[in-house]
Structures are given as structure tokens and as C-alpha cells.
Amino acid sequence: MTHPAQIEGLFAGRQSATIEAARGPRVTVLLADAHPVARRRVRSTLERAGGFVIVGEATTAAETFAETAWHRPDVLVVDPHEFGHLDVADMIGHVFRIAPGTRVLVVTSVDDDASVRSALHAGARGYLVAADADADQVLRGVQVVANGEVIVGRSVAGRLPALFGPLGGHVPYPFPQLTAREQQVLERIAAGKSNLAIARDLALAPKTISNRVSAVLGKLGVTDRAQAIVLARDAGLGRG
């Protein structure tokens, strides 16, 4: 005969499994940075948010490659500039050879043009400058990269046209983290248009535009429309 406590334990286990399944699959993350304070900051941010599993930490390039090969994380959060003997592009390229499905988010204090260009050309899905990236933006960065999108920090976004303009004459959109529709919305925000005017332009409901505007602000890492306008105009939008 099954003891009542066993039945209760079995039910609790099934209930826990059901709750866990309802939450959906969690994003696996590997943290790679020579500085323990930087790793601890990202770890605590993700653990507080929930929905992430920190599968490991690395303090050198060799450890990063070994941990990546072993865990094959969804997202590698790395400061490649801390592993000074290795070129940034070479390091990111090696990560992709080891684990093609891993997406790379660079979080670093280095924001010179050559480093940004090198990392993004090598395939990094995000580049955040630590001085500009608070806990919320780091969290947003991991979420965006895990979803297969691209995100760059505010100090980088306005420089993208200058960074990539000379490369074959092709200038990428300055905010690649936005969807095509969100880009259309931002361009109209930068031009000073209201939500109602944007809705008329795009033949969408005002409520839909309101939701799109909120999404744009979140992806740009700004808190209001005025900040979005400044950021967009600095990048050359809304001047036509």
C-alpha cells in the first residue's frame, strides 16, 4: 500500500515538473571574463530575472573554448578584450567553429571603432559597452541575442553608419536589433510624427503602433520618446 506521504511527494513532484514545463525552456548561458566582479554582475542579473541557466564560467580564452565545446550554450557572454593575446575576430570565429549554434554577446569596456567592427563582422550578435549597460540592458541583451536578434549599446548605435559605410558602399541599418516594422516606426518617430500619424502611414491600428513604440524603446535601451528621437537623429534618421 502506498503511504500518503509518498502520494503527496509524487503529486508535488509532478506539480513541480508541470510548473517547470509551463515556464518553457530556459536559456543556457556561459560567462567568460577575466574579472570575477564582471562575471558576478551578469550572473546575479540573470539569476534574479529567472529563465536562464548559467552553465559555467571561464577566465581565459582556453577555458572559454573548452567550456563552449562542453556545454554548447545558447549564449556566450564574453569580454574578448580581456584575453589580450588573441584577436577578437579570431576568438569569436573559433567559438562558432566549436559550437555553431552558440550566439555571442560582447560586454566590454572597450568601444573603439576597430574593436566594434571586428566583433560584429566576426558574427557577434550583440556589443554592449559596460559603462552604458546597466543590469536591465545586460538582461535585455542576453534575451535579444538568445532570440536570434542583434543588439548594440547606445554609444555604438550612432556610429554604425560610419563604422560600416566604407565596406563596399553598403551601410547597414544603424539599429539592427529592430524588426523591419519597428524600423519603419522609429524612422517616423525620428521625424516627429505622433502615434496616430504613424498608424495612418503604416495602415495599422493606433494600439498596434503603441505596442510597437514600446518595443522600440525597449530595444534601444531608452525610457521615453524624446531619448529615442535624439538617438535616432544622431544615427541619421528623420532628417529627410
From TrEMBL:
<feature type="domain" description="HTH luxR-type">
    <location>
        <begin position="171"/>
        <end position="236"/>
    </location>
</feature>
<feature type="domain" description="Response regulatory">
    <location>
        <begin position="28"/>
        <end position="145"/>
    </location>
</feature>
<dbReference type="InterPro" id="IPR058245">
    <property type="entry name" value="NreC/VraR/RcsB-like_REC"/>
</dbReference>
<dbReference type="GO" id="GO:0000160">
    <property type="term" value="P:phosphorelay signal transduction system"/>
</dbReference>
<protein>
    <submittedName>
        <fullName>DNA-binding NarL/FixJ family response regulator</fullName>
    </submittedName>
</protein>
<dbReference type="InterPro" id="IPR039420">
    <property type="entry name" value="WalR-like"/>
</dbReference>
<keyword id="KW-0238">DNA-binding</keyword>
<keyword id="KW-0805">Transcription regulation</keyword>
<dbReference type="Pfam" id="PF00072">
    <property type="entry name" value="Response_reg"/>
</dbReference>
<feature type="modified residue" description="4-aspartylphosphate">
    <location>
        <position position="79"/>
    </location>
</feature>
<dbReference type="InterPro" id="IPR001789">
    <property type="entry name" value="Sig_transdc_resp-reg_receiver"/>
</dbReference>
<keyword id="KW-0597">Phosphoprotein</keyword>
<keyword id="KW-0804">Transcription</keyword>
<dbReference type="GO" id="GO:0003677">
    <property type="term" value="F:DNA binding"/>
</dbReference>
<dbReference type="InterPro" id="IPR011006">
    <property type="entry name" value="CheY-like_superfamily"/>
</dbReference>
<dbReference type="InterPro" id="IPR016032">
    <property type="entry name" value="Sig_transdc_resp-reg_C-effctor"/>
</dbReference>
<dbReference type="InterPro" id="IPR000792">
    <property type="entry name" value="Tscrpt_reg_LuxR_C"/>
</dbReference>
<dbReference type="GO" id="GO:0006355">
    <property type="term" value="P:regulation of DNA-templated transcription"/>
</dbReference>
<dbReference type="Pfam" id="PF00196">
    <property type="entry name" value="GerE"/>
</dbReference>
